[in-house]
Design goal:
The protein is mainly beta and 142 residues long. 12% of the residues lie in helices and 50% in strands. It contains one helix and ten strands; from the N terminus they run αββββββββββ. Bound molecules: copper (II) ion.
Length: 142
């Protein structure tokens, strides 16, 4: 192999690595968010499916619409529902994690502008390796 071919190969590998930074192995299915008035809370839901060959670890979430947190709805006491931070969420290869009413959700705390049906809420999922996944959630009734 000539030196020039070696450099070309290196450049191509660097380009491939850059392309991998957007989490192509993750599929976001049916992302949606609840309508909300200004200052009120909303929540977003979706299914995150890992089509890759290794586990990914979700560590946080952010949104341009509101302060965002990963939450889990839990039974606090007999018949009393509450919610708590979901912590770190691992998605194994071939597995899916469902964010759905009554379970995991992306809490949107104090939306900056009204979320009306049909609008789009941008949500960024953050992973432990520094990569991110941007998802557009459609505002609709449950
Ligand atoms: Cu919540």
């Amino acid at each position: 192999m000539t030196n020039r071919k070696g450099w070309l190969l290196l450049l191509m590998m660097a380009a491939l690595l850059l392309a991998a930074c957007s989490r192509p192995e993750l599929q976001a299915e049916e992302p949606w968010a609840r309508p909300a008035a200004v200052g009120a809370n909303s929540a977003a839901y979706l299914i995150l499916r890992n089509r890759g060959k290794s586990a990914v670890t979700l560590v946080g979430v952010s949104s341009s619409a509101a302060t965002a947190e990963l939450h889990r709805t839990v039974m606090k006491a007999e018949g009393v529902m509450g919610m708590e931070p979901a912590g770190v969420i691992e998605i194994g290869p071939g597995e899916e994690v469902r964010f759905e009413p009554g379970g995991l959700h992306v809490m949107l705390i104090g939306v900056g502008q009204p979320l009306a049906e049909g609008e789009i809420v941008e949500i960024t999922f953050e992973f432990d390796d520094g990569q991110e996944l941007l998802v557009d959630a459609v505002v609709r009734q449950p």
